[in-house]
Structures are given as C-alpha cells and as structure tokens.
Amino acid sequence: MKVGIVCYPTYGGSGVVATELGKALAKEGHEIHFITYSQPTRLDFFSENLYYHEVAIKDYPLFDYPPYELALASRLVDVAEHEGLDLLHVHYAIPHASAAHLAKQILAKKGITIPFITTLHGTDITLVGKESSYEPVVTFTINESDAVTSVSDDLKKETLQHFNISREIEVIPNFIDLKRFKKQKKDHFKKAICPNGEKLLVHTSNFRRVKRVQDVIEVFNKVRQVVPAKLLMVGDGPERSNAEEFCRRTCGIDDVRFLGKLEAVEEVLSVSDLFYMTSEKESFGLAALEAMACQVPVISTNAGGLPELNQDGISGFICEIGDLDDMAKKSMHILDDNNLQKFKEGALNRARDFDVSKIMPLYEELYHRVIEKSKTSITA
After folding, report:
1. pLDDT confidence of residue 16
2. pTM for this prediction
3. Which domains does the chain have, with CATH numbers?
C-alpha cells in the first residue's frame, strides 16, 4: 500500500504515534509518505519506503495568519496524484480531517478516488474541538471520513457525547516499540543522580496546565520526607517556569532537576523507579506507556483513558485527580523494596499488551478494508 500520513511534527503524542506507525508500516514494506509543515521529530530515513513532503506556507501581507489548511489540502492533492497514494491517514482532526476532505473532493474532479481515515487523539475533541467556532467542521469531517479511529474507549465516548456523529468509531489504542523502549544498563547515570542510593522519580510532559505538574512536585515533597528520593522533570512548555519557581520555594534545587526536552527519554526511564502522570485530561497516556515499557511503575490519575492503560495495583496505582495524599501513600508502597520489583514486572507485562507488533496489524486491516470499500463504491 501507498499511504499518506498527516500529523503535527512536534513532540505531542499524536505526532509521535503517527510517526512511529509510519515507520513500522515502512518496515513491513508499505510505502509511507509523511505530509506536514516540517519533518516530524522522530522521523528518520533508514527505510527506503519512507518519504517526507513539506507543506510550504507562503507569507502574504494580506493574511495575518497564513491559511495552512488550504496549503495542506493542495499538497495532499499534489502528493496523492503524483505518488499514486491509495489512502490518506490523518492524525488529529483539526485541521487535518477537513484538509483531507477537501483534497478528496478535488481529486475526485480529476477522476482519482482516494479514501481518508481520521484518528482522534484527544485535545482535538476534548478541548479544541468543543469550541463553538470549530464544532460544525469537526462534526462534518468526522462524519465524512471513510473511517474514524480513537485511541481509547473514553475518547470515543466523549466524542459521541459532544458531537453529532452518525458513523462508527473504532478504538485502536496507542502502541509502543518494545525494541526501543526497554530497560537499558545506565547504572552510571543513576549513580550520578542518586549517589546515595536514593529512589529516582520522573515526570515527562509538555508542561501544559492540564498536566498539573505542580502536583508532581507536591507529591514528591511528601514522599521524600519518608523515602530518600530525587525527581527528574522532563519536557518543556508554558508551565515550566512556574514549576521551577515552586520548586525553589518548597524543596530547593538539589533534589529536583529540570532536563527540558530529551530525544532519548528511554535512557532516563531506564534508571527510574516511579513515573507520575497527574493530568486532569488524558485521552490515553503515551508517556506512561513508554515508562511501563522501561519497567517503571506508574502513579496516575483516573482521567480519561488512563484507567484503560494503568492496571491498578499491578502496573502502578490509579488515584483521584488532585488527591496528593493518596498519590504519596501509594508511591511509598511501590517504592518499598519488598514491592518495587513486583510492580516493575507488572508494568512491563502491561506494556507488552500494546507492543507495535500487536497494534499495527489493526491499522493494516483497517487500511485494506477502507481501500476495498472505496473500490467497490466506484464499480457499483
């Protein structure tokens, strides 16, 4: 198959999933064309089946904001026509689904039939999509998609609750490449951070308000009163400066390190003992899955799709949003040397359920089904 993948090229979960899916499909022999405004952060070209097509955005004095949606639609038409694509797979509804729909209509006028699949990832539904100015377009393009997938049951339910959707939404969860995300021997790194054998706690995110990063620091403060520990904060975003200032006021700088964005986050996870995901909204929790794959148990909230991923009492614990005392109590239970190894094994076993080798075939089957249905509609 020749598949065009549209995604945001940044560190967000939707872009990561789209890129990793494309790379996995390319290894299976499919020809994958990424179409976006810059090269995705995790995209490399070690496969002869991977291609990247940049969406050029012209800056005209007439426009305060260049019309990316139109530029994307035009590029989709160009790539689909000249590369002979069989299918478009767009990740994140806004504005990718509407651009794909427009491209499909333009191509139809040229005698080219190409279906498109929309994958919903989270804030395109739970936050941005609910804006009244976007809702009609989001509803329309979801219903006009040839197939729609969601990364969790919770996100599917929320989509059906807030939008007038008349078509089926299939749940295909996010996935992990266990060949990359696995526990590595990085004892020297652990020794440098925790010279006295402290436990190492970690949080990774884009530091938006919805992630409640201050909760992580407050829980850490409670834990370190009982268990000698250090905390690593990985990532960057609008709440980072506030989090750093809060750290200075409450626990100093010796026990907490802000590392910024890391490409090889699995190296940090490999030496960590506990991962925190304190979000108030989370459609799936890809960062938590990456931690589990590196044998790091998770303390998470019960937000969104997290209970579908984190098995309470097995791969970690699930707590109410904002219940910091409960998070601290359960953290100390996991960090007890009598319990830690059991939770590490439970985290890895749970991550195996989401290995790319199990999830990618679900997309392949969907692709084949949508393409065949499209061909049948032409001959009917």
Report:
1. 85
2. 0.91
3. 2-175+356-379 (3.40.50.2000), 187-352 (3.40.50.2000)
